[in-house]
Design brief:
Elements: E1 2-6, H1 11-14, E2 22-31, H2 34-45, E3 58-60, H3 88-93, E4 98-101, H4 107-115, E5 119-122, H5 128-132, E6 135-142, E7 151-165, H6 172-182
Parallel strand pairs: 1-2, 2-3, 3-4, 4-5
Antiparallel strand pairs: 2-7, 5-7, 6-7
Family: Belongs to the class-I fumarase family.
Protein name: Fumarate hydratase
GO molecular function, one term: hydro-lyase activity
Length: about 180
């Protein structure tokens, strides 16, 4: 099934998505990778507030390349999501509703997705130049000293993703393997 989604993403939206669905996201999303997740976790451990709103938000695991002239961002392909797995359950419990990356997630992350009626999307790895065409603006929000790993706020239009883990815990990577084995 195909869906057009506008951020912020809520439980009402995630409840309509199933593993394997194609989605096109329009609206604001945040970019954060390993170093930014570590800093956010450290801030929470100190009792500090996060530098970005988290409730009903989407985080894209991506480190952009420098923008070419006239473009808001360079190549913008996903990075491996499992590197954020030790931080993701906490953010999900704080209200994060969607994550975009590539690759498998741990049981703890999948449990947190289900517990919080969230969703994990995959973006196509190796297609960063094409994905960047869906990004209409990019602004560093915080942790500028991290360079490409700074937290950014992007405005995206029809950003293509696939539901990998839905709010019920159905996992496309598992069902696809079973389907392939059956064939």
């Amino acid at each position: 099934m195909e869906h057009r989604i506008t951020t912020p993403i809520t439980s009402e939206i995630t409840s309509k998505l199933s593993a394997g669905d194609y989605c096109y996201i329009t609206g604001y999303i945040y970019v954060a990778r390993d170093a930014a997740h570590k800093r956010m976790d450290e801030a929470l451990n100190k009792g500090e507030e996060l530098p970005i709103p988290i409730e009903n938000e989407t985080i894209y695991y991506m480190g952009p390349s420098p923008a070419r002239e006239g473009r808001p961002i360079g190549s913008a392909g996903p990075t491996t999501a499992s590197r954020m797995d030790k931080y993701a359950p906490r953010l999900l419990d704080l209200g994060l509703k969607a994550m975009i990356g590539k690759g498998k997630r741990t049981k703890e992350v999948i449990d947190a997705v289900v517990r919080n009626k969230a969703v994990y999307f995959a973006a196509v790895g190796g297609a960063g130049a094409l994905l960047s065409k869906c990004i209409k603006s990019s602004e560093v929000i915080c942790y500028d000293d991290l360079g490409a790993e700074a937290i950014r706020k992007l405005y995206v239009e029809d950003f293509p993703v696939i539901v990998v883990v839905d709010s019920e815990g159905d996992n496309l990577y598992e069902t696809a393997i079973k389907e392939f084995a059956r064939l």
